[in-house]
């Protein structure tokens, strides 16, 4: 889906064209920093005792962390990490990301300046590199506009790190600018926007990178619950809670990798260049945020259950244990809608059941709440698998679709 002759410059730093691209070992190494970042985010929410302020801070920093990784993934979809200059700029982004991750526990306290400066530096540095190494042309102009938007928000990130009283408004405006930039296609006065037809990406490589990020988030959930269990006496209730949490992670993996992901890939594989760029922006840049956020919240809920399997969840605990999977399902449903499919009723029922159960499970133990989540997710996985198999036999659609199989080709008509 790339038009390398007219959009992507023919320089040695660009990935080879004419062949399917896969994630490189260096990209996997790059992701290790974000394993640490996701862990820090979970710990921050737990350290704040699931307060609304802690939840707001964690959500804000999660979006910033994801945005930094997401922008780098777009860049690495074009630029070859096997070349030394690209690898060095990715090392710079890794270091800045590591500093940003270190600051997370006190990201709204005395390390706010480190968090804000690290984020702004990696965004500007990466985009400036692309502008510096590409020749004049359409691609170069696109990244000049992307760099301009990064420079526009940078003073707000730095100022927010310096001024305690105005941190929230300054950072909200800064993050709002960063989030809005792709939606307005990096529009600048006197220049205009960057056409979607010029955002040509390798759909398979792009999807693989975001699949790996989902694996990172799910892996952090397993690590967190395992470490928590290791710190207890490993009684029968803890073992049961650990098992339920692990199977819940398996159910989340199943719903994404055998459900939503194949449908997205199929849609991208049958799309025009303009459509692929728009799909990459909407589905991965934006709609994967609730999926990742749901996994992080689920990990926090699982840690609570494993640590105190026989305690009542109370409202905050129930919100974490049930709200995480609900947010995850909401993200999957949004992705299905974006690719032109009607969401099946089992997914809607599962989402409603999770939300409706919060006040009920607030008075239940952690094990009971976790068992309810696994029951709902397991039933949804079975229902979607059966419906997808039936649809596949009738219309040859991708297996595991979370969408109405009769609408599978709707987006291509």
Automatic annotation (TrEMBL):
UniProtKB keywords: Membrane, Transmembrane, Transmembrane helix
Residue ranges that the Swiss-Prot or TrEMBL entry lists as coiled coil: none
Name recorded for this polypeptide: Low temperature requirement protein A
Ranges of Basic and acidic residues composition bias in the record: 404-413
Record InterPro entries: Low_temperature_requirement_A
TM spans (from-to): 25-46, 52-72, 84-105, 111-134, 146-163, 169-188, 209-230, 242-265, 286-309, 315-336, 343-361, 367-383
Pfam families, A to Z: LtrA
Chain segments carrying region Disordered: 391-413
């Amino acid at each position: 889906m790339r038009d390398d002759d007219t959009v992507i410059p023919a320089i040695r730093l660009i990935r080879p064209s004419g062949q399917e691209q896969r994630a490189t070992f260096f990209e996997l190494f790059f992701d290790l920093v974000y394993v640490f970042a996701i862990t820090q985010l979970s710990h921050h929410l737990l350290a704040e005792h699931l307060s609304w302020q802690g939840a707001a801070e964690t959500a804000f920093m999660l979006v910033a962390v994801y945005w930094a990784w997401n922008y780098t993934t777009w860049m690495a979809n074009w630029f070859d990490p096997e070349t030394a200059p690209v690898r060095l700029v990715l090392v710079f982004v890794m270091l800045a990301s590591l500093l940003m991750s270190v600051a997370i526990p006190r990201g709204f306290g005395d390390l706010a300046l480190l968090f804000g400066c690290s984020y702004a530096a990696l965004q500007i540095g990466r985009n400036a590199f692309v502008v510096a190494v590409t020749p004049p042309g359409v691609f170069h102009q696109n990244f000049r506009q992307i760099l301009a938007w990064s420079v526009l928000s940078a003073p707000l990130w730095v100022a927010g790190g310096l001024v305690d009283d105005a941190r929230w408004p300054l950072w909200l405006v800064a993050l709002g600018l960063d989030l809005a930039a792709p939606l307005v296609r990096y529009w600048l006065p006197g220049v205009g926007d960057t056409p979607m037809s010029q955002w040509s990406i390798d759909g398979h490589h792009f999807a693989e990178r975001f699949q790996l990020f989902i694996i990172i988030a799910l892996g952090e959930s397993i690590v967190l619950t395992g470490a928590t269990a290791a710190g207890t006496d490993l009684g029968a209730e803890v073992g049961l809670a650990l098992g339920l949490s692990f199977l819940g992670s398996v159910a989340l993996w199943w719903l994404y990798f055998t459900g939503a992901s194949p449908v997205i890939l199929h849609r991208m594989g049958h799309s025009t260049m303009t459509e692929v760029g728009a799909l990459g922006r909407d589905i991965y840049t934006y709609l994967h945020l609730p999926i990742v956020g749901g996994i992080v919240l689920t990990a926090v809920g699982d840690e609570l259950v494993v640590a105190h399997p026989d305690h009542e969840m109370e409202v905050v605990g129930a919100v974490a244990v049930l709200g995480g999977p609900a947010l995850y399902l909401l993200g999957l449903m949004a992705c299905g809608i974006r690719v032109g499919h009607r969401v099946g009723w089992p997914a809607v029922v599962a989402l409603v059941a999770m939300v409706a159960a919060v006040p009920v499970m607030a008075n239940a133990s952690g094990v009971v709440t976790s068992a309810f989540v696994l029951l709902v997710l397991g039933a949804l996985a079975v229902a979607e698998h059966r419906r997808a198999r039936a649809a596949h036999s009738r219309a040859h659609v991708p297996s595991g679709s979370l969408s109405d199989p009769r609408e599978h080709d709707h987006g291509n008509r």
